[in-house]
Design goal:
The complex is a heterodimer of chains A (262) and B (322). Chain A has 262 residues and is of the alpha/beta class. Chain A has one domain: HUPs (Rossmann fold). Chain A contains 7 helices and 13 strands. In chain A, the strands form 2 sheets. Chain A has a 9-stranded mixed beta sheet, with helices on both faces. A two-stranded antiparallel sheet of chain A has the order 2-3. The longest helix of chain A has 17 residues. Chain A is globular. With 322 residues, chain B is an alpha/beta fold. Chain B is 26% helix and 29% strand. A 7-stranded parallel beta sheet of chain B has the order 7-11-6-1-4-5-12, sandwiched between helices. In chain B, a hairpin with a 4-residue loop joins strand 9 and strand 10. Classes of the chains: A alpha/beta (262), B alpha/beta (322). At the A-B interface, helix 3, helix 4, strand 7, strand 8 and strand 9 of A face helix 4, strand 7, strand 9, strand 10 and strand 13 of B.
Chain lengths: 262, 322
Amino acid sequence: MEILVCVKRVPDTSENEIELNGAGNDIDRDDLVYSVNEWDNYAVEEALQIVDKVGGSVTVISVGDDESEEVLRREMAMGADKGILLSDDAFENVDGRGIATILKAAVEKGNYDLIFTGAQADDGAAQVGGMLAAMLDVPFASLVNTIEVNGDKLKIGREIEGGNQEMYEIGLPCVLSIQTGINEPRYVGIRGIRKVASVEIPTLGAADLGLDAAAVGASAARVQRTDYFLPEMGDGAEILEGSTEEIIDKLVELLKAKGGLK
Amino acid sequence: MAQIFAYILHKDGVVDDTALELAAAAKKIDAGATPNAIVVGAGDALDGVCNDMAASFGEVWKVANDALTYPDAEIVRNLLANILPADSTVLFAHEHLGMDLAPGLSVKLDAAFVPDVVDIEGADGSTLKLVRQEFGGAVSAHVNCDASQGAVMTIRPGVFAADESKSAGGQVVDKSAEAGDLAATRKFLEIVEAEAGDVDITKSEVLVSCGRGIEDEENLEIAFDLAKAMGADVSCSRPIVDAKWLPKARQVGTSGQTVKPKVYLACGISGSFQHMGGIKGNPFIVAINKNAKAPIFQVADVGIVTDMLDFLPELTEKIEEL
């Protein structure tokens, strides 16, 4: 089984407070800690586990700038066999459709049975996998949280409401977007990273992919973010202040009044 | 202005709450528009759903076929690509079917796609002025969408007040014959129901709920200690279940359990919309989080900006002394 996993380098929201920059046109990216998108990490782990069972190889791919290479290398340290970076000045500020178009061109240069994306990334869009599948004209399922390989077919589960699962049989090749919790991603140590530190990661640009820069780039984007702003807070919570003891006394009184203590 | 369509979710003859939210969203795109609804399905209950929707939409496009007994996103995507006029604006709820169906539909229709829309500021010609959130709700973004070749959008459930006017006086139009081939390459097998847990948190009156701020599985003990002192149960947010520290049955959120306690202590929980979507009945919410900018503080009644790992044991001690 040849598996391609699409990954993205994102600010780690559990490590950073996300704030606006002075101009309000972007988040403040100084001193941000970046990491691989959490959903993508589960997707890589799932690909590795499938290949462990049925054989094959795992390739990780990312659309991004040079710094995305560190994310590819991290996933290769987990066990992915190969990394590919898709990078070009023309790819800056593309929309989701543009990302899917770039990935489609790269997919067509390979021979993949199965393509994973994370269910969503830092922008919460959850769009690239479904678009990529439609462009490739192959089956798609989103929010996948179980996969069982049965020959040339997969039995998959999708996460739906209330902890229930929607089960499908789906043929290969196909695109699946992977939900967190599908597995327990393995730990990557410094030694693992060192092992792959000098592995060459090919970089492909628009020309290598046979893409017309004007057709995929920002000028072609029909969806464009114009600025960031902070959501209005509404009334917001009453913040309890004072010493810990004072706060606890106030909170206990409130809990008593609201039926929170039995 | 191009026609606006809303895809209606329904189950067992009951229309989902999001249907009239989509009607409201359509009117924010164009106050003068009479949006249309699309209702697909099978069986006797379908006509009732269509008739209900005719009160709120101009035309209700019905597609009835036994292949649609369960709404497989692949089949519905194909039929929508067959029946929708070019350049339409199509609205879905941002939930598991919309997420499965809509991105691919936008490619098939060659329309622009905007997911998880939380507000609509209007239209300037064929440019839609929309609002989204990024980074788990930490920041909002204005988004321009060029809808000149059509647009597909998913709308976050619960953010638009339902349009209850029911004054559209619409009609049902049977489009079943135009739906095309309803075969699918992927095959729906079954729904697997969630396993019941050792505690039914949907019945709990008081919940001590913990999120990523718990940091380590061993620290769960302090949440259980507090819950014991309060006479509460322990629930959690998604990362705790993903890490396999607690079973799925204890997860609060749209993909977990819907709870309706009197008091909800959110400890180290950022407050994503998927998590808050699982809390009903307007409980008294106490947020304990060391990040003063966590979105949970926007929706909580009372907030304490502190590390839950230090605060919870002290609170437990105080309550035990009472």
